[in-house]
Amino acid sequence: MVAIKVHGNPLSTASMRVLATVYEKEIDHEFVFVDMRAGEHKKEHFLSLNPFGQVPALEDGDLKLFESRAINKYIACEYADKGTQLIYQDSKKMAITSVWMEVEAQQYDPAASKLGWELAMKPLLGMSTDTAVVEENEAKLAKVLDVYESRLAQSKYLGGDCFTLADLHHLPTLHYLFGTQVKKLLDSHPLVSAWIADITARPAWLKVLALQSQQ
Ligand SMILES: N[C@@H](CCC(=O)N[C@@H](CS)C(=O)NCC(=O)O)C(=O)O
């Protein structure tokens, strides 16, 4: 059987999201490094995988996909019998997990990604941080984290009693935010902090970080 191909860059949050899923599912895969500094993601070959010219992209035989969260849903369904169960078979349980997957994408990620860009990436690129953007998005993130704190008082993980894609999708942005002033905000939410400690210690996630450190 031909292994799936994950095209991406280990420094990209969206690529890390898919790699975490591939490692959780323990499926054979080929990681195709996309050299973003060389602009490979804007060249014809990559644009045939994702017309928006953004990593990651997935090839599974004839199937070509982009958008990290859609790729992860596909992998979790198609390889349901392998590795960690990242979704539920029960439709009501899955509906609840889907709610929290949407919360991650629509409420958490916009603020988390802006903070990651301002506080982690811009300093690395020698650009100056916009403090007004940081203030605005810390306030937005604080509201989301208050909701998470209540949710995690009722349920061990966001999507239910088991670790699912609803938790996994947070890992890359949490990783970058942990090295910034936002850690203080995360630490001020005890149940959120315990959840972060739990999900970031997963062996599959440590493999993603190991791959990243080889770059
Ligand atoms: N919603 C997309 C976002 C993809 C994305 O923004 N990828 C970034 C790296 S994390 C990228 O390729 N940026 C280069 C660009 O936009 O030109 C996903 O989840 O896959």
Automatic annotation (TrEMBL):
InterPro entries: Glutathione-S-Trfase_C-like, Glutathione-S-Trfase_C_sf, Glutathione_S-Trfase, Glutathione_S-Trfase_N, GST_C, GST_Phi_C, Thioredoxin-like_sf. It is an enzyme of class 2 (transferase). The gene is LOC115967894. Coiled coil: none annotated. GO terms for molecular function: glutathione binding; glutathione transferase activity. Its main location: cytoplasm. It comes from Quercus lobata. It is found in: Cytoplasm, Cytosol. It catalyses: RX + glutathione = an S-substituted glutathione + a halide anion + H(+). PANTHER family: GLUTATHIONE S-TRANSFERASE F6-RELATED, GLUTATHIONE S-TRANSFERASE RHO. This is glutathione transferase. Residues 2-83 form the GST N-terminal domain. Residues 90-215 form the GST C-terminal domain. The keyword Zinc-finger does not apply. Pfam families: GST_C, GST_N. Gene3D superfamilies: 1.20.1050.10, Glutaredoxin. It comes from the Eukaryota. One of its GO terms (biological process) is glutathione metabolic process. Keywords: Cytoplasm, Detoxification, Transferase. Belongs to the GST superfamily. Phi family. SUPFAM superfamilies: GST C-terminal domain-like, Thioredoxin-like.
